[in-house]
Amino acid sequence: MKHISILVPEDGILATIDNPRFIFTMVNEVLVAQGKDPFFEVNFVSFTRNVKLQKNSFTVHVDLLTDEIRKTDLIIMPALFGDIPAALEKNKPFIPWIIEQYRNGAEVASLCTGAFFLAATGLLNGKQCSTHWQSAHAFREMYPEVNLVADRVITDDQGIYSSGGANSHWNLLLYLVEKYVDRPMAIQASKIFSLEIERTSQSVFIMFNGQKGHEDEPVKKAQEFIEVNLSEKLSVEDLAVKFAIGRRHFERRFKKATNNTPIEYIQRVRIEAAKRTFETSVKNVNEVMYEVGYADGKAFRSIFKRFTGLSPMQYRNKYNKLAAAS
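Structure (tokenized):
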């Protein structure tokens, strides 16, 4: 039997605490109905008996305190609510226990912004993880030694798992059911919970807003120029000249400030504009392509799919009922 410790942190998000308990308990019930033994022992765990969540909206009564658990097999770290640094400070007592359990053979899984919690242990250093795409920049700033793959729904790296944003945690839970029990049980769970079992990318949900929280004013002006002139022919050389910075130095500063090269930034701004147009108009793919500064249909489709996981037509039909009907 696998012992699962679902952490109940101060300022945790209730759904990402209760949903893991729900799915693993359901798997036990299915196994018992089949005449088999239950596979999971599931406990809510904290360092205090009663934990307040989401601005005191909920109270969770935990099953076990951390010092009552000698060994566990899987630790689940739920998403954090509100001010992440403040939540991390409140939950520091968990960290030595998590590290000790991992060194003793436990696996660890973070859900959504629980990745911040996991990264604070140092166990993610040099490893891959995902989190909510909206928190990607803050995560990179706080934990530059972690390899964040923000477009991924699930990561699995040396017994450490993570999920992407919000409801992506269900996909990781299905992945763990398959890993611990078997594929047929994961399929059955996906049907019971009405979940897509093979979703691997959250790219289609990512909204690119640019990263302007830095202090490099020439780079910020270059970003604004790109966003205003996205339909024009833009080159790194022209931008460097316009803002009186040597090309190589401009590229380095731009990358440091925005986490994107100038070319990547131009592409992402254009694709985000294309996405908004597909969502709100009945323009065809070529019209949108020209509007956002592309003349080569093959290049546009390739770049669009790289950032969204869908072709322009698939994206339009997914998010625009009128365009799909036409």
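The chain has a mean pLDDT of 93. Residues 280 and 320 are 7 Å apart (CA to CA).
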